[in-house]
Each structure stands twice: as structure tokens, then as C-alpha cells.
């Protein structure tokens, strides 16, 4: 039986309850499918900033059969209960230091938090050094890529820009992607 794609999982009845905008107002799921499909049956650590109601955590749990998902948010939105493979923490990314990852080195790290440039830069500078070799670090919802690109360049780590603004007409439908 063929495994379901991220888009198919996201369209499953009941999944909408958990609320993720990665495949609704944004168009990230086809990109994530291309990036993540070679990794989906591997043992992975996934770290995400911004769990809101936990929709993306549930999506990752269903898609990645062996992944441990650790996610933080500053708002307690009363998400779904944790599971064996999902760890939710009420924390601010700006309070996290590299030591936080001493027992959890991410293979995939995603920032879907405040979308403030300074928080995104902090995320990159803090998480990229602890990202596993071959890992992916993704910053979602870049607010103004034209003006902010130079700030990302100033970090000194090569990155790719995935600009999806023309797909749905959203000004912030832009991903920054780092490969380690």
C-alpha cells in the first residue's frame, strides 16, 4: 500500500481539528514532501518552534513513523495531549541555549514561531550549530524577503530561498532553508 503524502494526511477527516496552516493558507506541504520523503522511515529528531494547537506535530507524527518531535511555544493553546513521540514545552526560543539540545540533536528544525526577524535570527544562530550533519533547518513565513535577505546573509551560513508568494498571493509565503 502506498504511503500517504503530507498533503493527503493533512486532508484526512479529523486532522483539521489540530489546525496547521502549512497546507492551507501557506503552500509548504509540497515542498516539505520533496525534502522529507527520503527521510520518512528513518529515526529522526524533529524540533519545531510554534506548536499552536499542535497540528503540525500531529502531521509529523503520522508522516515520520520513527521520529521524536519536540516542539515549543510561548502560548498555552491547550493543544492535544502529548504522545510517546511528541514532547510539548511551554518555552520561548529566546530563553533556549545550545545546552538545551544536549540530549536531542535535531535532524530537522523548523521555526514557525513569532515570525519576528530577530527571533528567526536567534533560532538560526542557536539551533544550526546543534543540527545533525545532513540536517535541515527551515524558517517559515519570512515577512519581507526583499529587505531581510541581507540580514540572513550576514549570519554567514549558505541558505536557499523558496519563494511561494505567487502560488497563493501571500506576502509571507517564503521559506529560508539551510542544509548542514
From TrEMBL:
Name of the protein described by the UniProt record: Methyltransferase
Gene3D superfamilies: Vaccinia Virus protein VP39 (3.40.50.150)
InterPro entries (UniProt xref): SAM-dependent_MTases_sf
Amino acid at each position: 500500500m502506498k504511503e500517504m503524502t503530507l498533503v493527503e494526511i493533512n486532508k484526512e477527516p479529523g486532522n483539521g481539528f489540530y489546525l496547521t496552516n502549512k497546507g492551507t493558507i501557506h503552500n509548504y506541504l509540497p515542498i516539505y514532501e520533496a525534502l522529507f520523503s527520503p527521510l520518512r522511515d528513518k529515526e529522526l529528531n524533529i524540533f519545531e518552534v510554534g506548536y499552536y494547537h499542535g497540528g503540525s506535530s500531529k502531521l509529523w507524527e503520522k508522516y515520520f513513523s520513527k521520529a521524536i518531535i519536540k516542539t515549543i511555544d510561548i502560548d498555552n493553546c491547550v493543544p492535544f495531549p502529548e504522545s510517546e513521540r511528541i514532547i510539548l514545552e511551554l518555552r520561548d526560543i529566546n530563553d533556549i541555549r545550545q545546552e538545551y539540545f544536549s540530549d536531542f540533536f535535531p535532524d530537522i528544525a523548523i521555526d514557525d514561531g513569532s515570525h519576528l526577524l530577530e527571533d528567526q535570527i536567534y533560532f538560526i544562530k542557536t539551533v544550526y550549530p546543534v543540527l545533525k550533519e545532513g540536517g535541515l533547518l527551515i524558517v517559515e513565513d519570512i515577512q519581507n524577503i526583499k529587505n531581510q535577505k541581507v540580514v540572513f546573509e550576514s549570519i554567514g551560513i549558505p541558505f536557499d530561498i523558496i519563494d511561494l508568494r505567487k502560488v497563493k498571493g501571500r506576502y509571507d509565503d517564503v521559506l529560508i532553508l539551510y542544509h548542514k
